[in-house]
Amino acid sequence: MAIYKAVIPAAGLGTRFLPATKSTPKEMLPVVDKPAIQYVVEEAVAAGLDDILMITGRSKRSLADHFDAAPELEASLEAKGDTERLALVRASTDLADVHFVRQRQPKGLGHAVLCAKRHVGDEAFAVLLGDDLIDRRDPILPAMVALQERTGGSVIALLEVDPDQIHLYGCAAAEPLEGGGSDEVRITGLVEKPDTADAPSNLAIIGRYVLNPAVFRVLEDTAPGRGGEIQLTDALATLAGMPVEQGGGVYGVIFRGRRYDTGDRLDYLKAVVRIAADRPDLGPEFRRWLAEYVPSLPA
Questions:
Q1: Is 271 a residue whose pLDDT tops 90?
Q2: What's the pLDDT at 106?
Q3: Do 10 and 135 fall within a single domain?
Q4: Same-domain pairing of 199 and 287
Q5: Are residues 164 and 282 both part of a single domain?
Q6: Which residue from 10, 57, 4, 70 is spatially nearest to 36, judged by alpha carbons?
Q7: How far is CA 121 from the centre of its chain?
Q8: Could you tell me if 204 and 287 lie in one domain?
Q9: Are residues 160 and 280 in the same domain?
Q10: Which of 5, 54, 73, 297 sits at 20 to 30 Å (Cα–Cα) from 43?
Q11: Each residue of 62-110: pLDDT tens digit?
């Protein structure tokens, strides 16, 4: 069965960006001139996933507003003949079929995914975390979807990181996938944010997943783990040891492209600079300004 549903957890409080996120969801913080969440939806749609479920929380109504029509604004732009901005406003409305459900309690990523059970049903689906922006020139979802369809299991995106940084991520133990591509692996074990000395590898889990619906049954039986939350990594570790006929098996695709981390203030600023510098409309002038400004900065 073709995969066309995607789940985007967006219930976090965004405390690292306070006070900006006191009244504005972190997902709505602009990356140049689009909110971060729109980049994520555009990535899903480009991979053929046009049925989007966002898992939200309180004070997140602006997410729904952004992907809804804005009749008064559209009428004003149309009356002015501002077709360029009118197209930009309508683009987010027409992107996909976007649905919303609330995660009433902050019980972790695993619980957020479990909130999608009724909408997803008995189908494989993707999960995209909004903190990870994948450059549209380096898509990974199509390869992950193809691997899920080929194996029937669940697929996670992996990134090789400095071993000293692995404690910041979920970590995968992996082996080459027989008959697979050079960047495809079979997962033999998973651990959430291990101590550096105990990490099985330097393969970090980043925020893209394509999951067999068996993950819902496993999540329902997964006890709270690290941080007292229901960890998706723990459920995937269980799936990795289950038979294929029961929806088990976990595989990975190693990502080697451009990725922007918007979950951290410093990395968010870097993402804005990198994306702006690559824009054909802003990049040339912005790069010239950077070339003049950066040498004047103290070391």
A1: yes
A2: 80
A3: yes
A4: no
A5: no
A6: 10
A7: 21
A8: no
A9: no
A10: 73
A11: 999 999 999 999 999 999 999 999 999 999 999 999 999 999 888 899 9
How many structural domains is the chain composed of? 2
Average pLDDT, integer, range 224-244: 88
Tokens of 18: 């306070």
Residue 31 sits in a domain of what CATH number? 3.90.550.10
> Does 213 share its domain with 271?
no
State which residues form the domain around 293: 264-299
Q: What percent of the chain has pLDDT over 70?
A: 100
Whole-model pTM? 0.93
Whether the Cβ atoms of residue 107 and residue 4 lie closer than 8 Å to each other: no
Q: Could you tell me if 140 and 270 lie in one domain?
A: no
Res 96: pLDDT: 93
Residue 227 has pLDDT above 80, yes or no: no
